[in-house]
Design a protein that fits this description.
Chain lengths: ~325, ~425, ~260
């Protein structure tokens, strides 16, 4: 029992940190530009596929460096020649633009790499077990992934606390309406923030790719959870995004670990007749099977009891 | 501010009932057109295509009650379409073969009722917020419902879905609804009723307040309205009509699948509605017809048709945010002043290089697809009836040249067309 | 029965306060505005005038104190409920429905008070009362020639007039106008003063205005707001003569 709990906790924190890598970029972009980048998970997917492709030719470490840089470049082009242009048509158009982007990126990925999973492997240098708890070994790569996300998290904190750009980002987080008054180079800042934001998502993609499955549907699987994270945390709140990332990461991994159903606990269904026939599914479903819908249940519950999200302040 | 007193006031709106023809003329024409269409497009494929278009018209218009009328961007509208379809299917299976006297053409009501009930339930949660948060909540609810559908296998039939038999109902007036043409008329009647009802709603106090909420939600509160109530009502009513569409889809295909209420289907209705045009009541109708047709046509020609849709959609968002209907509406003042013939040649001038650019782009796409995914087929391929080898550099060079030159010429021609357009309009303004 | 000698004021603010974090913007305002009075609020920039309006109209929640409209406590209730009780307002920054026509703008503002509410079964074009009221208001604000133009394309002064039209459309008995003359030329201001004089007949008017000529011309009484406090509230003549007002405000702006 302790073993499952321990492993699940590390897995949950790792998953949560990966979510936060993405949610942080998403939140900063949202606070500064007022656009929730619906294609954020698509940039995560691009990160994974570029990471895979570069790993094939130049090794994993080159992939870890270059894939995010390439994605940052693509992100900046998208901001400069797409999003900025759409801005004058209003918020709905901006959201729809990024929505259209998810379509296009998904299709391009399928066009180049196909619909089947690609063989993105853990690099040999990290392919050993870090430690053994009771009888379970824990892979070193996961510990590495956790370290990378923690290091980036700390680096991000430093940048936000200590640099000029960081000051602007801070100002944007606390007073989103004031961004327009930041001066004439605000366009450049936007482009940079968008580039860095999607690059963070790409880093998450490069390190998550070998652990999860690198496939053209990975953006579609993760995207909605990511948006749950930012809404549950409170749109535009970095702290909220952090708490919500870990919360959802842990909840989902624990749920997967506890493979029990109501039937296991209470015995066979007490109901009979027609009703029982349809509720049978509900009665026999295991917690693990419910795991995929838990984030959305959490979202609905949060909305009922705290419509602004955990740490949301500005209602927009 | 001080205008001359003799300045003409455009005739003010009247509250008198307008003439019978003015009120119902367009609907009578629509009914005649719907009745006559199967005689013009009589092939089996055409009739079943029109059946799909009919359900999609209802679906897209119901979506526009949110997006275009109230300014609410939902990513989960297919939930109501799908649930409406499933409940219709279950209701039909429940009475199938029995002597229950409910004829087939009443079952879409079940779909509409389901859509309304779930619209009320999910609307109560999602319309607490507006803007981006609302959009994300609808996405969450869509995921919640489509994931739950895979758990509740008895009800939603798992991956296979559930089937139904529309001919197994009590038959009124000898209508068995076996032949597709009978289904066409069933859909046509429901389509006409739904479209008219949705149009009528736009002309009510509620409909106008929806528009006000779209334009400036904060201000609406200061004229006495609760914006959350307005959003909630719009959400529930659009669920009702989406449910009718779903019920008709179930009857049409005789199968419901949980994919039909997934995020993909919700995305499809956004594409349809937006490409057609959200600023105009007829926009989503045009969108449903054009996109359904393109879907069927393109999926025959190419495997990556969804990429073309994505690109078309992004192009519309960037350059034609009012959609096809918006582009058509731009021509109206030209038609009124009989200036269209001055501008139309420029449209053709822009269209030709545009097509060249598109063919260049699509050549790149198809060659990439051939080399990357269809590796088993080898590099030999056919594009526009021309066979060539995708591995040799020549076709790539040709494709890039087509795209670059086409784009450049298109941009130039488009500017000329824009100039011609404003000139033609300025003509009208001269005293 | 003895209460009836002093009639209930249209608007009564008692100890009204508003803080944003540590900053106190409104520091305890007590003010009675009798029914039918034209009352102006003046004060330097940043004194909290617009914030005060936001508190009264329900846009912001007060941090303390109360607002009473004809004796009823309306403190902190949502703006739509306040609007339904007959308090209507305009905004400092033009705040219209830009895609709707001038006609639709005004008609939307008439609908609630006429009892049409959320009706989705009646044809709005056939509501005779809404049509009449809309036409009346458009004639009153002199925008009848523009009725079928989208509000977003009107000239600035016309948009300001429409802003007033939206405020009076519900036939509210208490009117809050936030800098109705802001950004207008001299000629336009004269028209606006006449318009406000006309629409404030039989109504209680509370307005924020910077133009002292307008204020002394229109107002029955004036309150001077400085740093979130009312330092004086009196007739125009006495305000002119008031030494502390001279010192705090008028001395620097009015020669």
């Amino acid at each position: 029992m302790f073993e499952i709990l321990f492993i699940s906790t590390i897995n949950g924190v790792l998953y949560g940190m990966l979510l936060f890598l993405m949610a942080s970029g998403l939140t900063v972009i949202f606070s500064m530009m007022g656009v929730l980048n619906l294609a954020h998970a698509s940039f995560y997917m691009l990160g994974a596929f570029f990471g895979f492709e570069i790993t094939l030719h130049m090794g994993f470490w080159a992939g870890l460096v270059f894939a995010p840089l390439i994605v940052a470049g693509i992100g900046m082009v998208v901001e400069r020649y797409g999003l900025r242009h759409v801005h004058r048509h209003g918020h709905v158009a901006e959201l729809l633009f990024t929505f259209g982007l998810t379509f296009v990126i998904q299709e391009v990925v399928e066009m180049v790499w196909g619909k089947l999973p690609v063989d993105y492997r853990v690099p040999a240098s990290l392919d050993f077990s870090a430690f053994t708890v009771f009888a379970t070994t824990y892979p070193a790569f996961k510990i590495f992934a956790l370290l990378v996300s923690v290091v980036i998290f700390l680096a991000l904190l430093m940048v936000i606390r200590r640099t000029r750009i960081g000051l602007i980002v801070q100002a944007a987080l606390s007073h989103p309406d004031m961004v327009g008054m930041l001066g004439h180079n605000v366009d450049r800042v936007f482009m940079l923030v968008f580039g860095v934001g999607v690059a963070l998502a790409a880093v998450a993609g490069v390190i998550a790719g070998p652990v999860l499955v690198t496939q053209s549907n990975m953006a579609g699987l993760l995207g909605p959870i990511l948006f749950v994270v930012v809404v549950v945390g409170g749109l535009g709140s970095l702290g909220g995004a952090f708490v919500a990332s870990l919360l959802i990461g842990l909840v989902q991994t624990y749920a997967v670990a506890f493979n029990i159903s109501l039937a296991d606990v209470f015995g066979s269904s007490p109901l009979s007749g027609d009703v029982a026939f349809y509720l049978d599914d509900l009665w026999n479903v295991t917690v693990a099977q419910v795991a995929p819908i838990l984030p959305y249940l959490l979202l609905v519950l949060i909305l009922i009891f705290r419509p602004r999200g955990l740490m949301g302040t500005n209602n927009r | 501010m001080s205008q001359k007193t003799d300045m003409k006031i455009p005739a003010l709106p009247s509250d008198k009932r307008s003439s019978f023809l003015a009120r119902f003329g367009i609907w009578i024409v629509a009914a005649i057109v719907l009745a006559g269409l199967p005689y013009v497009f009589s092939s089996g494929l055409a009739v079943s295509t029109m059946c799909m278009m009919g359900t999609m018209i209802i679906f897209a218009l119901s979506y526009n009650m949110l997006l275009g009328q109230t300014g609410l961007l939902s990513f989960g509208h297919a939930v109501f379409f799908g649930l409406g379809g499933f409940l219709t299917a279950w209701a039909m299976n429940a009475v199938a073969g029995t002597s229950s006297p409910v004829p087939l053409f009443l079952f879409p009501i079940m779909g509409g009722f389901t859509g309304l009930v779930f619209g009320i339930i999910f609307g109560a949660v999602s319309t607490k917020r507006s803007g981006t948060a609302f959009a994300m909540i609808t996405l969450g609810i869509a995921e919640l419902v489509s994931s739950s559908a895979l758990i509740l296998r008895h009800f939603f039939g798992g991956e296979e879905g559930i089937t139904l038999d529309r001919t197994d109902m009590v038959q009124v007036l000898g209508l068995s609804f076996g032949p597709q043409i009978q289904v066409y008329y069933l859909i046509a009647v429901w389509c006409l009723i739904s479209v008219a009802a949705m149009y009528a709603i736009t002309c009510t106090p509620f409909g106008r307040i929806c528009n006000a909420v779209r334009d400036n939600p904060e201000r609406v509160r200061f004229i006495g309205y609760n914006t959350q109530t307005v959003r909630f009502m719009a959400f529930s009513l659009s669920g009702l009509f989406a449910g009718i569409g779903g019920g008709l889809a179930a009857i049409n295909f005789e199968i419901m699948n949980s994919a039909q209420m997934g995020v993909g289907e919700s995305g499809a209705v956004i594409l349809m509605t937006y490409i057609g045009g959200i600023g105009n009541f007829a926009g989503p109708i045009i969108g449903a017809i054009v996109v359904t047709y393109l879907q069927l046509m393109l999926s025959d020609v190419t495997d990556v048709w969804q990429l073309y849709f994505g690109l078309l959609f992004i192009g519309m968002v960037m350059y034609a945010p009012r959609g096809l209907a918006g582009l058509l509406a731009l021509q109206q003042p030209l038609l009124q002043t009989r200036q269209l013939h001055h501008v139309a040649p420029y449209y053709i001038l822009a269209l030709l290089p545009g097509l060249v650019a598109i063919s260049g782009l699509s050549m790149v796409i198809e060659m990439t697809y051939q080399l990357a995914v269809k590796t088993a087929a080898g590099p030999a391929m056919v594009f526009f009836y021309i066979p060539f080898n995708a591995n040799s550099p020549l076709p790539w060079i040709i494709a890039v040249i087509l795209f670059a030159v086409g784009t450049w010429l298109f941009l130039r021609a488009a500017r000329l067309a824009g100039d011609a357009y404003s000139q033609a309009l300025a003509w009208r303004k001269l005293p | 029965m003895t209460q009836t000698k002093t009639p209930v004021p249209a608007l009564r603010l008692s100890g009204l306060e508003k803080s944003f974090g540590p900053m106190k913007i409104i520091r305890g305002i007590d003010l009675d505005i009798p029914a039918g009075e034209r009352h102006a609020v003046i004060g330097p920039n940043g004194a909290g005038k617009s914030t005060l309006f936001h508190l009264i109209s329900g846009h912001y929640q007060p941090s303390g104190g109360s607002v009473r409209l004809h004796g009823d406590d309306i403190t902190g209730i949502p703006p739509q409920l306040i609007a339904r009780r007959g308090l209507s307002r305009s905004f400092q920054v033009t705040n219209l429905f830009p895609q709707l026509t001038v006609w639709e703008n005004v008609r939307c503002a008439t609908l609630w008070a006429l009892g049409h509410k959320y009706s989705f079964w009646r044809n709005v074009e056939r509501l005779a009362d809404a049509r009449q009221r809309t036409e009346e208001i458009l004639r009153e604000i002199n925008l009848i020639e523009r009725w079928n133009m989208p509000a977003g394309v009107l000239a600035y002064a016309e948009q300001r007039a429409l802003e007033i039209g939206l405020a009076i459309a519900s036939n509210a008995n208490t009117l809050l106008l936030d800098e109705p003359m802001a950004g207008m030329s001299h000629g336009e201001t004269e028209h606006m003063v006449e318009l406000i004089r006309k629409v404030s007949e039989n109504r209680t008017l509370l307005m924020i205005e910077h133009d002292m000529g307008v204020v002394f011309d229109l107002a029955d009484r004036i309150s001077v707001l400085v740093y979130g406090e009312v330092i004086a509230s009196d007739t125009p003549e006495r305000i002119k003569a008031n030494a502390s007002v001279q010192q705090a405000y008028l001395g620097t702006e009015v020669a």
